Amino acid sequence: MPRPPFELTERDLEDFATGAWILGTGGGGDPYFSLLEAKMHLAAGRRVTVIDPLSLADDAMVACVGQMGAPLAKQEKLCDGEVIASTIPMMEEHIGRKFEAVMLWEVGGNNGFQAILSGMLLGLPVVDCDAMGRAFPQADMTTFAICDLPAYPWTMVDIRRNRLIFAEAEDWSWMERMTRKVSTVFGASAATCKAPRTGEEVKRGSCLHTLSRALSIGRTVRAARAAHADPIAAVVAAEAGLVLFRGKVSDVMRRATDGWLRGRVAIEGLDGDAGETMAIDFQNEFSVAWKGEAVAATVPDLICLLDSASGEAIGTETVRYGQRVTVIALPAPAILTSPKGLKHVGPRAFGFDLDFHSLFAERPA
Q1: Which of 116, 120, 298, 358 shows a CA-CA span of 20 to 30 A to 337?
Q2: How far is CA 164 from CA 83, 88, 117, 154, 200, in A?
Q3: What's the total number of domains in the chain?
């Protein structure tokens, strides 16, 4: 049975920001400014309703929105709700149909807010799902690509209101290549409405109830803080995760290139990990964690860097020397760890000559 619809409150928005930032695995962008904007719209009387994807009619038309670019650039070039919302009527005009709902491209970080802002401004309900179950850096790293659903058409707008429509693409790899180039020209920050999805495609080709998962994680962190308990331990317990390492950031190498933020974080161990080191590579999001010379975790399992005291997520664009951090891993959605999924989002998709070995493979479902 579909879950009943619900309206997001101000506290829900705060909890969602916390949970989505953790699910962003270092990427998706810091949700702080979008949270402020959503609160502003809420205070002005705009509301947004979240609906269960299982309640969608098979022929319903759903818009899928998100920002594209490098997280560091998005900190300097703020893309507000009106810009992201403008990609939707642009798509409607192109396809000659109206959308009945909007969904998240990725639940991670700031990108999780783009559907919420669009829904508030356009009066569209938000579907409780996304196309990643976390955040990934490329358009071909989605459940829609894994399911071989069409990659086009695609609309793109920048903060200056430059607008483009990608009418067709050979496949998801080509759509990624073309849109990445334009995103780079736009200053590594652009608003997009991805290929329209039907209700049937959403139900079989997305990660279901991930908005609710982000809300749940945020509520877990808030409750732990209120009880003066360890918020990281609470999240790990609630999400069946693992603590990988505790330490202090000793070095950060970071560069914005080709529309991504790439680099590595080095961590010196503290407490039970004293004397050990961990390094985490990233391409917008954390991709591979190394404890010493050994692989500790890889995509698509979620590698999350959290502030050791507050449990707040730390992004690849904001991590800095001296921070006390805890590295945790959370299990990835099953579609990402399937043989087809690993071709799109496994370690080799990020350029690492590594096989994926899930940290959670032996755990009961």
Answers
A1: 116
A2: 13, 12, 21, 8, 27
A3: 2
The amino acid at 10: E
Same domain, 184 and 284: no
Both 137 and 262 in one domain: the answer is no
Query: Would residue 318 be called left, alpha or beta, if left means φ above 0 and alpha means ψ between -120 and 50 degrees?
Result: alpha
- Domain of 181 in residue numbering reads as 6-210
In a domain, 364, yes or no: no
Query: Which pLDDT tens digit goes with each residue over 253-306?
Result: 998 877 778 999 999 999 999 999 999 999 999 999 999 999 999 999 999 999
To the question of pTM greater than 0.85 for the whole model, the response is yes
**Using one digit for the tens of pLDDT, what is the confidence trace for 2-60?**
899 999 999 999 999 999 999 999 999 899 999 999 999 999 999 999 999 999 999 99
**CA 19 → CA 45, 118, 124, 131, 276, distances in Å?**
24, 20, 23, 17, 29
How far is 127 from 116, CA to CA, in rounded Å?
10
